[in-house]
Structure formats: structure tokens, C-alpha cells
Amino acid sequence: MFSIIRYRAVVAVGIMGLVLSACGSKTSPDAAAPAPVEVGVVTLSAADVPLQTELPGRTSAYRKAEVRPQVSGIIQKRLFEEGLEIKAGTALYQIDPATYEAAVASAKAELARANATLAAAQAKETRYKNLVAIKAISQQDYDDALATLGQAKAGVSVAQAAVESASINLRYTRVLAPIDGVISKSSVTEGALVNAGQTEVLANILQLDPIYVDVSQSAEELLQVRRQMKSGAVAASETARVRLILGDGTLYEHEGQLQFAEVGVNESTGTVNLRAQFPNPDRLLLPGMFVRTQIEEGVRTNALLAPQRGISRDRTGSATAMVVNAEGIAELRQIKVGRALGDQWLVLDGLALGDQLIVEGLQKVKPGAPVKAIPAATAVKAGE
User: Fold this and answer.
1) What is the DSSP string of 177-221?
2) Helix 98-133 vs helix 139-171: crossing angle, to nearest 10
3) pTM for the full model?
4) Which of 325, 348, 72 has its CA nearest to residue 234?
5) pLDDT by residue for the chain (384 residues), tens digit each?
6) What is the dihedral of CA 126, 132, 136, 141, to 10 degrees?
7) Rounded to whole angstroms, what are the CA distances from 47 to 172, 280, 351, 353?
8) How far is Cα 163 from Cα 113, in angstroms, rounded to an integer?
9) Which among 279, 68, 64 has a CA at the least distance from the CA of 183?
10) Do residues 316 and 271 make contact, with C-beta atoms less than 8 angstroms apart?
11) Which domains does the chain have, with CATH numbers?
12) Cα dist. 10→18, 23, 24 in Å?
């Protein structure tokens, strides 16, 4: 009797355990589904954006004149102060003029002799003209007198040219500045012998306002922009504006303009030379400085921009983006991007207007997972 009671108790306990176990294994459907992950998104929109290219470059003087002597002689005086602004026509050096003054005097004396000879020849020609009319002299005598008059006139012309040449050489003894600008240090001092046509430069004059900036751009990039302009995707700027970033990282206060692009491509580098012109009233820019230029090539109409923090690269280097689709599911897209514009990429393919690009919380989601999209600015504040 005792064993039967014990058996019934064990069976009852077992049944109760099975019931409790079954009750404990039941869960609600909501608890089984994973909760959507909250991510910060940016809704993509289109806008007209200027296309800028940043290129390295160097400054060069707007005009440069190399001062050389045009006559030979000894430098008597240096008439300028090195490093100062000078005007065109300013006297820079005085070469000893003594021999050139003497040459002018000699040429003037030869001119006086030629004029006297001309006067005698004219008088003789006049007399012979009257005499040949009355047959007092032969025609040959008159022809000789007429030829002598012509030679005398030519002699006067030669003497006048000699006076002019000697006077020019005398003026060249004062070496003048050919252009406005800042003059460099002098390579000669008083007492130095200089020669006409020498290769050594006495001084350099540089015009620094305005100033040029020479840069080189890849021929492929230039071709791509021109093709986009031809297709209408990029609107050409009437005047290409250029900004400068100086060596210390600061932005130059004056804006420049692109002057021209070289008509040929450098065969060794595959680049095209560009030249921009900048105002330089404060002489802040000096020739030979290294700078970076931001050239506005045109305006891309209806451009789609995506924040760089929302774009990743896969193992092959292709650009990818994670977006939230209409069902609230994270979707991985293979995209194609162009150039970087600030902290954004120019999207060429793979994304569309109105797409919700995930820019925050990417590390918490996987493709196909449900997500809760909130504006990126809100997501930032929530994480603070």
C-alpha cells in the first residue's frame, strides 16, 4: 500500500514539472524579433555646386626685366637703392661718358664739313646749269657738277646718321629702368668695367602687382571637365575664379582669375600648364613661392552629394553605402563617386534623390537588418 502511494506521488510531481517546463518555454512573438537599431541618416538632395580643383603651383613675376649695358665703359655711379620700387625711365647706372661725348663732337664736326661741301656743290651746280644753257660749257661738265651735288647730299645724310648714332650711345651711358617694379641687388659696383651685350645682368626689375601663379593640371581631368561641359552636366563659368592657399595654410585674401591654359600637353608629365593672375598690392606674394590653388572649373547642375562619413570601401576598393529602404531595412549599395567637395563625395551612380544614407551607427547594422532612421543631427545629440 505504501509503495502505491509513493508511486502516485512521483508521477504527480513529474506531471507538474512537465507542465511548469512547458509554461516556461512559451515566449511572446515580440520578444523573439530583434529590436530595430537606431541609426542617424541624411536624406540626399540635389543642388548646383561649383567644381573646384586644388592644384600645387608657384608664383612668378608679372613682368621681369634684366638690366644690361648697351655700351661699354666704366661704371661711375650706381643711382638707385637696392630693393626699392622704381619707375620706368629711372636712371640706374652712369657709365663714363667722356669717350662718347667726344664721339658726338667728332660726328657733329663731320656733319659741318659735309654741309660746307654740299653748299659748294650746290653753288657750282647752279652756275653750270646757266652756262650749259648758253653752250658755254659742255654737257659733260654739267653732269659732273650734278653728280658732285648728289654725293654732297649723301655725305650730309651719312654725317647726320653718325651724329644720331653717337648721340644714342651717349644717352646709353645712363642705364635706365625699362619697366616699373622692384629692383634687385646690383651685381656691379662703381669702377666695374661693363661691355655692350654682356651676358651678366647688372640687376633685375620685377613687377609684382599683379602676380602670376603657374600650375599644372592632369590632361585627363581637364578632358573630363570639358566633356561634362559639352554634355551639359557642368555649366561653364564665364570667368574661372581662383583662390590661393599659402604655405602656412591660410587663405589669400584676394581672388584671382585664370588667364589661359597651354595649348599643348607636356609629354613627360601628361599635364597642361595653367596660369592665373592675382592682385598683390601688399607685396605679400613673392616670385618662387609654393602655393596651392583652388580653381573653380564650372558649376555642376543637380549634383548629388553624399557625406564622406557615410561612404565606405570594400576589399576591391569599390565605394559602398548603406541606406534605409522604404521597408525600414538596411540596404547595401554599390556606388560610383567622383571628386571630393569638402567633406562630401560627388555621387555619379548608385544613389538617388531622397535616399536615406546612414552616416551614424554603421558599425551596429548589417545589410538586411531592420533599423530605425532618425536625422543625423538628432543622432549626434542623442550620443552626447
Assistant:
1) -SSSEEE---S--TT-EE-TT-SS-SEEEEEEEEEEEEEEEEHHH
2) 160
3) 0.64
4) 348
5) 444 444 454 444 445 544 444 444 444 444 555 678 888 899 898 888 777 778 889 999 999 999 999 999 999 999 999 999 999 999 999 999 999 999 999 999 999 999 999 999 999 999 999 998 888 889 999 999 999 999 999 999 999 999 999 999 999 999 999 999 999 999 999 999 999 989 999 999 999 999 999 988 777 776 766 665 565 555 555 567 888 998 888 999 999 888 877 777 777 777 888 888 999 998 899 999 999 988 877 777 788 889 988 898 888 888 999 899 988 898 999 999 887 877 888 888 889 888 999 998 888 888 888 988 888 874 443 333
6) 80
7) 64, 34, 15, 10
8) 13
9) 64
10) no
11) 37-49+303-383 (2.40.420.20), 52-62+207-299 (2.40.30.170), 76-95+173-200 (2.40.50.100), 97-172 (1.10.287.470)
12) 12, 20, 21
Cα distance between residue 145 and residue 130, in whole Å: 12
Closest residue by Cα to residue 296 from 265, 311, 274:
274
For residues 295 and 214, the answer to whether their CB atoms sit within 8 Å is no
